[in-house]
């Protein structure tokens, strides 16, 4: 039996867990530049706050209903997520971390030594997570990961389930699938849902009952796996060990648009240093990098209010040999930036992506290439250790400024209660 545990309105719930005064009050969390809504709790949804809506368009609504507003606080969310997953590991051996607020559990038969039923196990997990972390979670049980995902959705949306939905008999599963919309099934995208509706397949039960050959023609082998999962035959197994990422990307915006090449280059160096740390942490080398640059599509020209002129460009660079050295990658990234940068525009963001990732021990000599610079690779690891011990950017590349003006400054950032000594709560 599989279970899916999902924290309700995770970002908002984390903010509320450290501030009980927010109980019953609408809460929203904004994106990196305080531009859009990326999370809202049930009270905010009831007021009509839309996901991804522009914050500047709802300031009157925020003031009218006393909505609590927070900037994204990813260090705090990441730490609480790690604690949530650690708590779940106390109930079962196998936990797959699916996202920052979701995890699949594999529940074997030994559970009935300690709990009377799946319902009892689910209620216990909910109560303990509420007690230990002050987070509300919903739990769905099913014989496959897809069915547990459906059960979780019902547990979250239907108050009658009180946060726990168990699909453990063919009768229960059939009753749910008869009315469950096909477009809400995990793994069915918008295009696939539209295609299925053209054939008058509108519910999960109708999709479950289609012939294998027909679904293979329409949705390939992934569609067949999905149908088998709906029939209760597991095809998507638990991935306890997270697979290595196939690419790493970052593109946070500037605090305000900038026409300066020096600031754009400084931001590129900063972003590259960060994703190279992630690259080395997961033990990979990058064989290709992509640098891209773009202006603000919503910017108006000061003075006349007309839309400002727009520009975007990118450059892909294939490296002679995969590497994880920040200094080596920066040479190629800087050259790409010089090629695509155009003067006379105000830029909103510069981004970089590392792709074609291979294991760190990969070595392949070519006709003109011996391999990556081994000294540079070792130097990068030493820099990582020193920065971990003495603080980020204690050692950095000379082209990276000490206190740049371009970073965004979140206006509504809450304290990092669990990751900074200065922000830790004080009990009086």
General description of the model:
This protein has helices at 10-17, 42-46, 59-65, 74-88, 118-133, 145-157, 170-179, 190-198, 204-208, 212-230, 261-281, 326-340, 374-390; strands spanning 2-7, 27-30, 37-40, 68-70, 94-99, 102-106, 137-142, 164-166, 248-250, 253-258, 284-295, 312-323, 347-359. It is an alpha+beta fold and 428 residues long. The strands form three sheets. The protein has a five-stranded mixed sheet. A hairpin with a 6-residue loop joins strand 2 and strand 3 (37-40). Helix 4 packs antiparallel against helix 5. The longest helix has 21 residues, at 261-281.
Task: Give me the oligomer status.
Answer: single chain
Structural class: alpha+beta
Please mark out the parts with pLDDT under 50 across 5 or more consecutive residues, or reply none.
Answer: none
The N- to C-terminal Cα distance equals 46 Å
Strand adjacency order, main sheet: 5-6-1-7-8
Tell me the total number of β-strands.
13
Q: What is the mean pLDDT? A: 90
Count of separate DSSP helical elements: 13
- Assess the beta-strand content as a share of residues: 15-25%
Report the helical percentage.
25-40%
Shape: globular
What is the chain-wise order of helices and strands? Answer: EHEEHHEHEEHEHEHHHHEEHEEHEH
Brief overview, please?
The protein is an alpha+beta fold. It is built from 13 helices and 13 strands.
Task: Give me the secondary-structure topology.
Elements: E1 2-7, H1 10-17, E2 27-30, E3 37-40, H2 42-46, H3 59-65, E4 68-70, H4 74-88, E5 94-99, E6 102-106, H5 118-133, E7 137-142, H6 145-157, E8 164-166, H7 170-179, H8 190-198, H9 204-208, H10 212-230, E9 248-250, E10 253-258, H11 261-281, E11 284-295, E12 312-323, H12 326-340, E13 347-359, H13 374-390
Parallel strand pairs: 2-4, 7-8
Antiparallel strand pairs: 1-6, 1-7, 2-3, 5-6, 9-13, 10-13, 11-12, 11-13
Helix pairs in contact: 4-5, 11-12
């Amino acid at each position: 039996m599989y279970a899916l545990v999902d924290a309700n309105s995770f970002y908002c719930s984390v903010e509320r867990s450290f501030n009980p005064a927010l109980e019953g009050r609408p809460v929203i969390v904004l994106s990196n530049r305080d531009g859009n809504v990326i999370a809202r709790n049930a009270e905010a949804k009831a007021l009509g706050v839309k996901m991804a809506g522009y914050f500047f368009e709802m300031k009157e609504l925020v003031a009218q209903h006393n909505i609590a507003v927070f900037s994204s606080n990813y260090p705090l969310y990441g730490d609480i997520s790690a604690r949530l997953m650690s708590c779940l590991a106390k109930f079962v051996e196998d936990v797959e971390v699916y996202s920052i607020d979701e995890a699949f559990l594999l529940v074997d038969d030994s559970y009935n030594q300690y709990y009377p039923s799946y319902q009892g196990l689910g209620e216990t997990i909910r109560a303990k997570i509420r007690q230990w972390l002050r987070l509300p979670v919903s739990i769905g049980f099913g014989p496959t990961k897809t069915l547990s995902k459906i059960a979780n959705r019902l547990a979250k949306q239907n108050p009658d389930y009180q946060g726990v939905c168990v699909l453990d008999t063919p009768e229960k599963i059939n009753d749910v699938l008869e009315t469950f919309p096909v477009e809400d099934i995990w793994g069915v995208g918008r295009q696939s849902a539209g295609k299925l509706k053209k054939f008058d397949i509108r519910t999960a039960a109708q999709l479950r009952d289609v012939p294998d050959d027909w679904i293979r023609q329409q949705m390939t082998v992934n569609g067949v796996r999905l149908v088998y999962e709906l029939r209760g035959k597991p095809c998507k197994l638990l991935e306890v060990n997270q697979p290595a990422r196939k690419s790493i990307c970052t593109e946070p915006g500037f605090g305000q648009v900038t026409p300066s090449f020096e600031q754009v280059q400084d931001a590129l160096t900063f972003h590259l240093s960060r994703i190279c740390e992630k690259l080395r942490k997961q033990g990979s080398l990058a064989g290709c990098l992509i640098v891209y640059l773009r202006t603000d599509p919503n910017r108006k020209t000061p003075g006349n209010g007309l839309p400002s002129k727009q520009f975007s460009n990118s450059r892909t660079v294939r490296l002679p040999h995969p590497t994880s050295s920040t200094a080596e990658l920066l040479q190629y990234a800087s050259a790409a930036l010089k090629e695509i940068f155009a003067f006379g525009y105000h830029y909103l963001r510069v981004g970089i992506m590392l792709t074609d990732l291979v294991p760190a021990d990969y070595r392949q000599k070519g006709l003109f290439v011996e391999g990556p610079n081994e000294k540079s690779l070792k130097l990068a690891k030493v820099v990582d250790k020193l920065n971990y011990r003495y603080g980020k950017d204690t050692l950095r590349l000379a082209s990276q400024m000490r206190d740049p003006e371009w970073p965004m400054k979140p206006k509504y950032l809450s304290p990092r209660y669990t990751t900074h000594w200065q922000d830790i709560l004080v009990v009086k």
